[in-house]
Amino acid sequence: PLHTINSLTQKWWGAKRLDYALYCPEGLANFPTNALPHLFHASYWESSDVIAFILRQMCRFEFVPPLNQDEKELTNFNPGQPREKWIRKRTSVKIKNVNANHRANDVIVKEGAGQVLMARFMYGPLDMITLAGEKVDIHIMRDSPSGEWAFLSTEMTDKTGRVTYSIPDDKALGYGLYPVKMVVRGDHTAVDFSLAVVPPKTECVVFSIDGSFTASMSVTGRDPKVRASAVDIVRHWQELGYMIIYITGRPDMQQSRVLAWLSQHNFPHGLVSFADGLSTDPLGHKATYLKNLIQNHGVIVHVAYGSSKDISVYTSIGLKPKQIFIVGKVSKKHHSQATVLAEGYAAHLTNLLCHGGSRPAQGNA
Asked: What are the DDHD domain coordinates in residue numbering (predicted)?
C-alpha cells in the first residue's frame, strides 16, 4: 500500500507545492509591497495544515459563528417544549429588535464532585437587557456526539439573568465530555457549553487566548492575525491526549465573538473560561480559576502559554519556568521566570517534536 500511495502522491502534486502557490487577487496589486507579507500571513500561514488551506480555497464557506466550539447542529435538536408567553409582560417589549447574547463557561469537575451548571441570559450590545424571572429548559447529551438530547430540568432566571442548576446525585454523570444546551422557553434562543467530568490527575495544557494566540490587535478587533503555527501547537498537545483549556480575563459578554474567532481559525476544541462581567483584576480571575481546578478537581497543569503578563498567574499556581512558555515582548527580569519563545511557535514545535521534547498525557481518561 505504501508504494501505491507514493506513486499516487507524485501524480497528484506534480513538481509544484500547492501550499506555496498563493492566489493573489488583482485588488492586492494596489497595496504597497511591504504590506503584502502581513496580508498573506493573516490569510494563509496560521497553520501548516495544508489540507485546511486547500479546502478554504476550494470551498467558499459562508461563515456562520458557531454557538460553541463543539458546535451542535440545531437541526438535530428539538426543544421539546413549545414557546410560551413570557412570564413578565415587559419582557417581550424589552427584547424586541435586539439579539440574544447568552453565555456560559465550560464546567470541569472531578468525578464524585458536585456537577453545577451555570449560564447567564442577556440581550443587546453591552448587556443592555437582562432576562429576569423567565423559564429556561436545560438539556444534556449523554452519548456525544451522535446521542439524543435528554431534558434535565426547567429553571427560572434570577434578577441578574443567571441560572444555576445542580445535577442531582441520581442523575450525575461519569467520566466524559457532555454538550449542554439551555433554551429560553419564551423565544427558543439558546446557549451551548460543555460539562467535562474528569478522573483525578487529569493533565491539561493552558493557553491564554490574548497572550498566546493573537499577533495583532485584540480578539474583538475585526479579525486579528493569529501567531504563525499557534494552531499547530494546540493540536500537538491535543493529539498527545492533554485536555486543552483556553482562559481569558475578558468579560463574558465577548464570549460568542471570541469563540467564533477561535473556530474560524481552526483551533481545536477546548474548555473555555471567561471572567464574569467586567473584571477589575483579570489576572486574578485566571489565577483563581486555575487554583480551583488544581485544588478541588485534581487537575494537573502540564505546561501553560501566554504573554509576559501571565507569568505571575502561572507562577502562583506552582509552575516552574520550564513549564511556562511566553511569546511576544518580555523584559529582561522575566527571562529567568519563564521560557521565552523568541523564535516563535514554529521553532518551538520543532523542539516539541524532537525526541524527549514532549510526552503523551498520563492518566487522562
From this structure: 1-60
Strand partners, 244: 205
Does residue 327 form part of some domain?
yes
Residues with Cβ < 8 Å from 68, sequence gap 6 or more?
179, 192, 193, 194, 259
**Do both 18 and 124 map to the same domain?**
no
Question: In the numeric block, which cell numbers belong to residue 296?
Answer: 478541588
Residue 127 region by backbone torsions, left for phi larger than 0, else alpha for psi between -120 and 50, else beta: left
Tell me, yes or no, whether 96 lies in a domain: yes
| Distance, CA of 319 to chain centre | 22
Alpha carbons 125 and 82: distance in angstroms, whole number: 27
pLDDT in tens, 146-184: 778 999 999 999 999 999 999 999 999 999 999 999 999
CA distance 247 to 310: 11
Longest CA–CA span in the chain (Å) reads 71
Domain boundary among 162, 183, 198: 198
Give this prediction's pTM.
0.79
How many other β-carbons are positioned within 10 Å of the β-carbon of residue 201?
13
- Domain extent for 138: 90-198
The reply to whether 207 and 323 lie within a common domain is yes
Residue 311 lies in a domain: yes
How many domains, in total, are found in the chain? 3
Q: Is the dihedral of CA 349, 204, 326, 103 positive or negative?
A: positive
CA neighbor of 91 nearest in space, from 81, 83, 80 = 83
Closest CA to 203 of 298, 117, 91: 298
